[in-house]
Structures
1.
Amino acid sequence: GGERRGTLGEKGMSRQRQRTVQSCLKILLVGEDAFKECQSLEAQWKVVKRCYFRRALKTHPDKGGDAKEFRAAHESFETLRTLYEKGKIESFASAKAEAGAFDDIEDHVRAAASASAQSYEYYAAAAKEDVPPYRVEPAKSNRSACQAKGKAKHCADPGIDRGELRAGWMNMESGTYGRWVHLGCWRVPAKVWLGLPDPDDPAADPAKFEEALLQMNEVLLCGLYELSPAQRKEVVAYCMDRSNWAALRRPRQQKAEPETGASNAEGGKEESGGGKPAPTVPPAAPSGSV
């Protein structure tokens, strides 16, 4: 629909410049005591994300929500996310930043104001994550080995050289990323590609894909801001190739089944670096992507 594809507009951008951290938090319905138990900025950020995704799922136009409220929540979250990832805020709880704090991120505000809404499925998947489950980075040493198996494995040498791009998964027990694979062996998870534009669109623009991936920073996929322009371009090109995408798996509706890895959005094999699930082909990306 038009609402979903439409931009947030110049009026939205003007409102954005006038906002303070306090007003952004208010739009996301962050309660006065929401940060009471938070001992760090990282913990506060998790609260902000939870509030944002609750708001986004409730107001998403795909489900008959209020498009104006959805846009306002999106603009506010993008502002707070930028302040957080650029280290320009010490505490969301204090909410001391004034409107002038946004002056040096005008380019990002403009990008947020012109972004289209991502699919409801993307928000539903992202809402489940307190920390980014995936990371892309240059290998820090020559000690890591590619964990890909089966049809996902495209490397002859499992060794990942220092400086070579690799992708990994968050180990929630250790709080670190691991299970590294070469970028060329990575099955781009459905949680990620659900938020990307359609790569089959004749007008597919790498800049739009890069913008969409960067908006996942501190949400689903981290590390992109730390890459060189050439490395980021390589990641964008890889994600634009639908053949690199993991299949989207949904629970069967015909009969009740136990909650197992079969309902995992990426499928168990992709998550563990396993083989590409032939012959399942990922469906077309949602037309209303960023």
2.
Amino acid sequence: MLATIFVTVYLLQTLLCIQSSQYIKRVVVTGAAGRTGSIVLSKLLSMPNNFLAAGIVRTKQSMKKLTKKSKNMEVLVSDITKEIEFEETLRAFKADAVVLCTSAVPKIKILSIIKTIIFKIFGKVSRPEFYFLKNGDPYNVDWLGAKNQIDAAQRAGVKHFVFLSSMGGTQPENFLNTIGKVAGDELSGNILLWKRKAEQYLIEACSSSDMKYTIIHPGGLTDKKGGVSEILMGFDDELLGRKLRTIPREDVAEICVQSLLEPAAANKSFDVIVNSEDAANNPPTTNWKTFFSTQGTCQY
């Protein structure tokens, strides 16, 4: 009788484990030390019944910075510019999905701020100037780094690749493309164009494999509280025509997380902002199935 009870309990535990494993996705977040990537990772970790998540950073310094926020975070050091190393990291974690949150980050030239202030005093216009750290420029991070992640994910058997990009990819003349631009150097600057090139590469890679993609183009990122506004979906930078075109990082992170749960988000590329112009008459977005079912996708 006792043996029968033990067998029954064992079978029930095994069944529960099998059922649970069907719903838990193993997700890797790259750029996890960044302002948006860290929020994505935190949201994934807050949903243990759905996800087992790990953050990827390039240096031990970034790992220490991230783990200070929560001791429960699993943070892995892996260089996205080294394709084989990153692939081995994905295989070791047995990743089902990757959320790409890496991006080149410009640094402001201090002297340009002084110049801008002086020009303003005399009624003239001058913009601050920016630069990128060595190997931290758009070509190396937003093109080569993203391409490495896509190739590594494909070879490691990743099923879903979420690409957090940016609006403005259809506009070569966009101001963001001038940041870090050096005359005569075709590889410099053009952050939005390099991102778009990587997006196209992802779509082509997925078309010849079982990996699915979701490409998200947020408008201007803010640090406001998320979950309080309606989120608008658009395509091909049409939302740039609106007067207000921003979105909280928290909302962007939530979209990344929900795209891993909603089948309608698969193989879709879209732009997002919050409805700031008519916020009072529109409740916050909560029905993600309906949101991702919006007809359309960006054209390349």
3.
Amino acid sequence: MADKENMKSDQEGIKSKKDEEEEDDQDVNSDEEEKSGEQESKKRKRKRKRKKKSTSNNDSDDVDTTGGGTAGGSMTENQDKLNSLEHTVYVEGIPFTCTEDEVKEFFLSNGCEDVLQLRLPTWQDSGRLRGYGHVVFDTVTSRNKALRDLNGKHLKNRYLNIQEPKDRESSSSRGSSNNNSKPRQQPEGCRTVFVRNLPYQGINENDVEEVFKTCGKIVQGGVRLTRNYQTKELKGFGYIEFKNPEGAFAAVQRAAKGGIVIKSRTCQVDYDEGKMKGSFRKADGSFWQKEYGNVHDDNQSRKRIKRSS
């Protein structure tokens, strides 16, 4: 009897120990769950912080994309100016060895102190400037000063050609005069045309002048064919300056009908509203303006200068 009672008490003791162990395991599991819950909570907080930080960085990046200018005005006002042709100039002739900072310093040191943005394309392989681009100013006064006073000035060893930018519609229509499209309207007073699809070999300025002089009188030195001055090879395009706008009109109209052909190549002709670069060279490598006068003067002024010399 006593043995049975002892065995029963032992069994109850073993059972109670098991119950205690299970309770301990439950406590450990609950502690682990609490710790896991705390860790998850901390992770969520860290994620929220990172997300908030990322959002704030993106907001600051959005502000910087307007060009980083220090000029006054709200973000919306600056964005309007960046998209406005009235605050922008187009620059050609930028030395390839220049940096953006040097181009900006050129305008700052010449009285245009509110540069809002520089849009200067670069070569992908070298990162060097491609020699042209747009400059946006905070005020129309600085923009007009750049057009009036800085056009033709030197930056390092090159002349800068600074002019009003063309709108997208105008620039996209350049060279569109061909057999399948109607020529665009002639800009008022335009006497110069842009010609492409010229032969790359076997022609010179005299050959081109012989073809185009049937459209109207061409000014002295008015045929300018672009070349690679290292290899002396033609690039397949050029410019022709007529004495009167009627000559330019006739050339564009004839080309639109496929009527201008040089060495079996049908030329495409369009009005050119840009200004010649001061660094433009003739076939022999000499500067064009050394013989024919300042590129930024009109034809009559160049004639007077040539006679006096």
4.
Amino acid sequence: YVLMMKLYVALMLIIFPVLNAFQISPPTSTEKSMTLGFEDEMSRRKLLFRALTANFLLLPQSPQKVAAKDTINNTASNKRIGGLSGKIRNIGNIMDELQRDLMEERWDLVELYPMQLRSYVPVLTKYTDCAFPSDLPTDKELRVALRYEVGRFFASLERLKQATSRRALNEVYIAYSDMSLHFDRYMRVGGVYTYYDDVVSLEPYYKGIPDDALVFANPTKDPPEVWDLVLFIRGPDKGRTGILIGIYPDVKNNFVVKLDRYKGMREIRVVPNKWVGKRLGVEDPDEAFMIPREG
């Protein structure tokens, strides 16, 4: 038995590098690589493992035992990653509460968020390592990308903390926008979003419909300001709505917009200021302002 196990290890070291040379290249889209490529990669690795076991080790196992082991391993892994995904998505709820408090200039409350958000460092780290644990090039690249977004998120959080101590509202808005953007990217790359939207652009749906059919203020004469409710009037998100959470003055006044909730999630967009108009008429406030404060 010991001799056979040694043979197994030797074969793994020799054969896997050869098989990896023929691995399928990941899709060009980062999001599709996460939602689809990861599953394909994991399935392919299981098939390779079974082939080695069956053909080289000569240690047959009944289909029932193999299926039972796979079910137990997959269930445990999915529960572990699924639990972490839920905790990560909760950061989005905290970001909504932070948005409410900073836009209402409740500085005493804003000062409490850095410590609360930093408590999620172990969660983000563990998810990165558990969701993409292998030494395959795709997993390595994804771990690097996710760690980068985590680093940028907490660097932005530190800037928010410093700007809050100075009561520098515009700097706080920019720091919050950066936090939202990097968290959104982590969610996309990490496959934490609860859905995959394969619609490339909504503009074709508005073909032939005049712009004045959409109700919004002239972006040149009456541009939106931070915390205004906005409507996308150009670009792939045309017709979608959200709230302006920041303006990047050093990048041609690009707007940072948090979209209204869709399937439980709120995505972030950074777009040219001419793509967004302020909504007119009677509107309900952004849902972040409807979140009750505890106590």
